[in-house]
Amino acid sequence: MDLRALALGSTLRTAVTVVLALALVTGGAFALGWLGVPSVVATENAFGGVNETTTTVDTAVTVHNPNPVGVRFGGVRVNYTVSMNDIAMAHGRTAGVGLGTGNTTLRFESYLRNERIPAWWASHVRNGEETTVQVAADVRSGTLGRSAHVVPVTRTVSTNISGQFNSTENRPINAGLPLVSDPVLVVRETRAHWGPTTEAETPLETAFVVHNPKATPVTFGSIGYDVTMNGVDVGEGESEQAVVIPGGATRTVRASTVLENDRLDEWWVTHLERNQTTDLRIDFYARLSLGGGESVRVPLRGLTFEETIRTDIFGTKNATNRTASDGGSADDTTTGSPTTASGESSSPTDGEPTTETTARSTTTSAPTSERTTTTTSSENGSTTTADGGLLAV
């Protein structure tokens, strides 16, 4: 008898037996609830690069493994969705995730289609210039066939474009014409509100309370407008209406200023390139008949509307050094293109804005964050948030 073969065979049989026993014990421990299912404790999003068609969303998902051993055998998958006013803007998932004990931060990229911006903008206006940004995430163990869902965390983004138009400041209108003394009119009040918004157009209904200081009547033949956002033309037109303002009288002149929504994806690129900042400008002009003479086009420079719009959609604008222009990253370890489970580079497709990646990970022994972290219990759905600008779940 070959004693070495017998000993070696016994060693191999023993090793196989131990491995099988460990697998059975671990599976039984999960089944009996002795070991826990990994859960998502925090996510953080920031805008990365942007081009004419696509916006990159950089995501960090922190997954907590409550078990004393790492989880690599379970086919762990993490899913997340970013929506704005219930419009899905980006969806991502990681496959084949290996988790150590404690917290593991997974970093990956997904893509937002700029063509979705007009639909979001319309919803923003319909919702009283308010957007609810929602991030939902869950983690699933293939071994257990179970998922740990997290109550979505929301963030509200507000603007006040129409409200900023309202003013009671007296503003003169000068014709700048020979033999005509200025001002020819005085605007005593301006008002605005959003009209019925469609997927194609966003009308801003404006009203001007105008006083005629002259003795002779002045006729408004029409009011025209040009709208730009960061220099991008998003609307122009002329409102045809005749309003006669007798000498010494005051009348209200109304005009509908329409933003063309299909131009907003081009504006969106400039908004991100300028760190989520937009300079909105509306230039007005009028066609006036002074004293019954010919109609002349008069720039309404005193009515020029300028508003700076700033947003912080993910609440991380001031916490990252990444910019759209340099394509860099706030975290030096998060570089390059995302990779799929097969190791190939991932890129946007013509379908849903979904990216499946093999995430880069960093493991810590306890829930930590340089910024404020939101912790969530997936068992009772409760969420405790300390607001530090971190959009977390």
UniProtKB/TrEMBL annotation:
Name of one Pfam family that matches: LEA_2
InterPro entries assigned: Ig-like_fold (IPR013783), LEA_2 (IPR004864), WHy-dom (IPR013990)
Gene3D superfamilies: Immunoglobulins
SUPFAM superfamilies, A to Z: LEA14-like
Superkingdom of origin organism: Archaea
Water stress and hypersensitive response domain location: 40-158, 187-305
Stretches the record annotates as Disordered: 316-393
GO BP: response to desiccation
Compositional bias annotation for Low complexity: 351-385
Biased composition (Polar residues): 317-349
Protein name: Water stress and hypersensitive response domain-containing protein
